[in-house]
Amino acid sequence: MFTELTQAEIVNGAVLLATLHSDLGGARRIGPMRLLRPALIAGSIVPLFLGPIVTHGAGLAVELAGTAAGLVGGLAALSLMRVYRSPGTGKPVTAAGWPLALLWVLVIGARAAFSYGSFHWFPSQLAQWCGAHQVSAAAITNGLIFMAVAMLATRTLGLATRAAALPAAETLAAAHADTYATSGAR
């Protein structure tokens, strides 16, 4: 029904919308579903596109480069989110704004542009490069998939880690009470 390119672009759009919906705004609760959603999305998408994993040569380097780019992108996304305990509920939450949205739009937009370009703008140049460096099309596709999965996984594991490292709600309440008592005594 849809071409592979159209499917890839639909997936890119779905991942972008799901991520922005999940992360943009203030006091976004960090709960099990928020942490599991990226894994569920990746688990449903990856089998559609993942080719045989290349275990040697330049193809492996492309896959590893995609993974490394995803790790860096995930850390960048994580750095643009504030993780804190909600003053109202004591539960871990995040706040993120337009810088995070811009990062995701740029990363997914670049991936979508590369996918589109590989079919319409530079297919012969890409084929020449692949031949010269003995890289299969599957390795490039895998590299892009590994990039997306690594970015989502890094962001998700980082959120879980940062939420778990927050001081307990009781500790925060005691600190606020001490601050209030100290400031009121002056």
Residue windows where pLDDT falls under 50 for at least 5 positions: none
Radius of gyration: 21 Å
Number of domains: 1
- N-C termini distance: 73 Å
| SSE-based structural type | mainly alpha
User: How many individual helices?
Assistant: 7
Number of strands: 3
Strand order of the largest sheet: 1-3-2
**What general outline do the C-alpha atoms trace?**
elongated
How much of the residues is beta strand, in percent?
A: 5-15%
Fraction of residues in helix: over 70%
Largest sheet entry: 3 strands, antiparallel
What are the secondary-structure elements, in order, as H or E? Answer: HEHHEEHHHH
Question: What's the mean pLDDT score?
Answer: 87
What is the element layout, followed by pairings?
Elements lengths: L3 H20 L1 E5 L2 H18 L7 H23 L2 E4 L6 E5 L1 H23 L2 H11 L3 H28 L4 H17 L1
Antiparallel strand pairs: 1-3, 2-3
